[in-house]
Every structure is written in structure tokens, then in C-alpha cells.
């Protein structure tokens, strides 16, 4: 993959020559990368003045965006720096406004007036699922427990709790009752857990993550 990153688009024979491997062996490895979505076939790189070769050109390969991500990204750092800049320019209120707009976008498809509380919780779970939070919901003796098994913005939320606060405020508006945050990944817990005290009408409630 390093050769594809540095030299792509590149043919199997060129990789084999550089690494001292057989073209057939290199092609098998490249085909597996393509199958896994880490590489793709493409046209060879052209340079002005090069003579076009006769015959069918050799298949060339390059990394996909997913393949490039294996070499690391700085998305968390960039996001944290961006919110830090918002805070430095506009203070905590600017961060709160950013957080409010963010959750409005996340939950934009939910109409709280058209759903009862339990359906609203399921809609919240669906929205969280779509944004990478891996949610689940279950009944408890005191209501419904909404769990988020992953937080894609945990690094930012740890430094700026306004993100979590805005999320809880939005959920409370959607379900039309207060909510009780019990645990946060941003605080070092393994799961974000929120209790939603709604009336119970059955035995079990499942969220988007439970329907896989």
C-alpha cells in the first residue's frame, strides 16, 4: 500500500520490479486490495511529451480514499481546533450556537408533533445511527434508556461539553419530556447513557442498532 500511496497510479509489474516480487504475486495482492475497497484500477499517469505505447496498456492501480485513511487522518484534531477557534472568537455562547445548529441538522427529519414519546425515541435512535453513534434503546422500570455505543465527536465533546448539552436539549424537545444523562463517553465512560422517563406500554423497545 505504501508503494501505491507514493507512486500510484502504478502497474503490478512496476511494483514487482521495485520490491523484487513476481508480477503475478503482486497482482493477487492488488486484486485483494481492490476487493476490500482499498485500491482501484485507473488509467496510467500521462506526462506531456510521452509517446503513446502500442497495444493494450497495463492495468494500473491507485489507493481509494478508504485506502488512504489507513495511513492516518487528523479529523479529530482538525474538528477540535475548529471548535477551539469558534470559542476563542465568540466565547461559550458561540460554541453553544454551533452545537445547537449541529444537532438541528442531525435531527432535522424528526417531527415531534407527529409522534408519541416512544416513537420519537426510536426516531432519535435512527438519526443517531445515521450519524455513526451506534445507538440502542431498551425499556427500564423508570422509562426508556437510550445508549450510544460510539461517539464520533468524543474528542471535541470532552473539551466542549456544549455538544453533549445541545444533544440532550434537542432529545428532550423531541420526546417532550426532560431527559437524564447518566454517563458520557466524553467523560471516560464506555457508553453514553440517557434515561428518558416516559410511560411504559409494552415489554421491550428496540432501536436502530438492534435491527441489524
Q: TL;DR?
A:
By secondary structure, the protein is of the alpha+beta class. The protein has helices at residues 2-7, 12-19, 23-35, 65-69, 75-106, 117-130, 154-159, 162-175, and strands at residues 10-11, 39-42, 60-63, 135-140, 143-148, 180-183, 192-196.
Provide a descriptive summary of the structure in words.
It comes from Corynebacterium lujinxingii. Pfam families: HTH_24. This is Transcriptional regulator. The protein has 8 helices and 7 strands. It starts with a helix and ends in a 16-residue tail after the last strand. Helices cover 46% and strands 15% of the residues. A hairpin with an 8-residue loop joins strand 6 and strand 7. With 212 residues, it is α+β, with helices and mostly antiparallel strands. The strands form 2 sheets. Strands 4-5-7-6 form a 4-stranded antiparallel beta sheet, with helices on one face. It is elongated and about 65 Å long. It folds into 2 domains: 2-69, Arc Repressor Mutant, subunit A (Orthogonal Bundle); 75-211, Muramoyl-pentapeptide Carboxypeptidase, domain 2, CATH 3.30.1380.
List the helices and strands and how they pair.
Blueprint: H1 2-7, E1 10-11, H2 12-19, H3 23-35, E2 39-42, E3 60-63, H4 65-69, H5 75-106, H6 117-130, E4 135-140, E5 143-148, H7 154-159, H8 162-175, E6 180-183, E7 192-196
Antiparallel strand pairs: 1-3, 2-3, 4-5, 5-7, 6-7
Helix pairs in contact: 2-3, 5-8
Organism: Corynebacterium lujinxingii
Protein name: Transcriptional regulator
InterPro entries: ArsR-like_HTH, Carb_Metab_HTH_regulators, WH-like_DNA-bd_sf, WH_DNA-bd_sf
